[in-house]
Amino acid sequence: MPQLLASGAETAAFAERLGEGTGPVAVDTERASGYRYSGRAYLVQVRRAGVGSALIDPTEAGPLDALARALNPLEWVLHSADQDLPCLAEIGLHPAALFDTELAGRLLNQGKVNLAAMVEREFGLLLAKQHGAADWSRRPLPADWLNYAALDVELLVELRDALSDQLRAQGKSEWARQEFEHIRTAPPPAPRPDRWRKTSGIHKVRARRRLAAVRALWTARDALAESLDRAPGRVLPDSAIVEAALADPATVGELRALKVFGGPRQRKRSALWLDALAEARALPDSALPPQRPAGGIPPAGRWPAARPEAADRLAVARETVAALAEANDLPAENVLEPRVLRELCWNWGEIPSGDGADAGAESLARIDSLLHSAGARDWQCEITAEALADAFRQHARN
Q1: Cα angle vertex 40, ends 38, 46, to 5°?
Q2: Domain membership flag for residue 69
Q3: Beta partners for 53?
Q4: Assigned domain for 292 exists
Q5: What domain of life is recorded for the organism (predicted)?
Q6: For residue 269, what is the DSSP state?
Q7: Which domain holds residue 272?
């Protein structure tokens, strides 16, 4: 097992050795999801042929400038890169090129694409996977945790090489290149509006003022969780937010009579939660949140009532994509993301009139434009646009 590097000098020395290696570099991180509010990396694992592996503690190693200079110009191999790239960017690490082994497995339609399943399938080896959900902010890190973390990069480059050969054999190398580049260059996601609406169990809350109570409690919890750097669910569970919003307690006694709020941790925060509830209670009707968020595309289940022609079009599009997925040996969600398909069908508008070449070209151009604007890659548009245009026009004629 490689030594844990927990100082700037140790990390800089390893960074200097990285230049002596060859080929791409395997990279992974360990975070403390479910324990901490932030998504920061608490451990960075790196491995390159000719150099070996290193486990780096970014919370102790200080600025990682030397590591960034050595690592950033290289091709990185990650598994489920979109999970790791944001926290790596926070510490100044950005790949010049990328290979995502999980995404490669999806493009090869391999079914199970978690790292352990793929390593077993390709190499007949079993990975120890028992510490993935551990609290990686803990210090010192136990030796068996570090061993688990080191194994995550042990065979990533070899897995990349095997998958690259398979992608080439199936004629999917360019598809994979576009997918990897899409992930590598994706901007940080914009903050989602109305994040409080994702509160688990919110479907039980119907009245707008009770929704305002959920919002106020969620906002108070989020601010406290951020200040403590603690996962929001560990500050106050979603179920307690919903229960308090529905019960609307106005006194300390009424609040503490609720299941979670009577516990020792919540008793000292009674004033915070009561203030949030009072804030919601005092809002004028005009400031109450709507029962459903305004704007955007509604859930597909509401389409038959809201826009039945779009619901019919979505059914046709899903059938078309399923057929294309089978023909190209791909999962349907990799042919076109469900979100992209919904945006296309909702925003389609009227079918171009006529049956001639001009109308067909107009349909194809419109679909291609809508797909690209929704984030579809060139290869996805190339294999789907014409089939979708034909399916839509056939459906309109029927």
Answers
A1: 165
A2: yes
A3: 47
A4: no
A5: Bacteria
A6: T
A7: 195-287
Same domain for 178 and 72? yes
pLDDT at residue 292, as a whole number: 85
Nearest in space to 244 (alpha carbons), one of 215, 287, 284, 286: 215
Residue 197: exposed, middle, or buried by beta-carbon count in 10 A (0-12, 13-18, 19+)?
middle
Query: Three-state SS for 187?
Result: coil
CATH of the domain at 12: 3.30.420.10
Q: What are the angstrom distances between the C-alpha of 393 and each of 17, 296, 344?
A: 60, 26, 14
Question: How far is the C-alpha of 198 from the C-alpha of 220, rounded, in Å?
Answer: 15
Query: At which of 260, 287, 314 does a domain end?
Result: 287
The answer on 172 and 304 residing in a single domain is no
Q: Indicate the range of 24-33, 100-109, 164-173, 388-397 predicted with least confidence.
A: 388-397
User: For 211-266, what is each residue's pLDDT tens digit?
Assistant: 999 999 999 999 999 999 999 999 999 999 999 999 999 999 999 999 999 999 89
C-alpha span between 330 and 33 (Å, rounded): 31
Distance CA 178, CA 184 (A): 10
For residue 203, what is the domain's CATH number?
Answer: 1.10.150.80
- Residue whose C-alpha is closest to residue 68's, from 78, 60, 58: 58
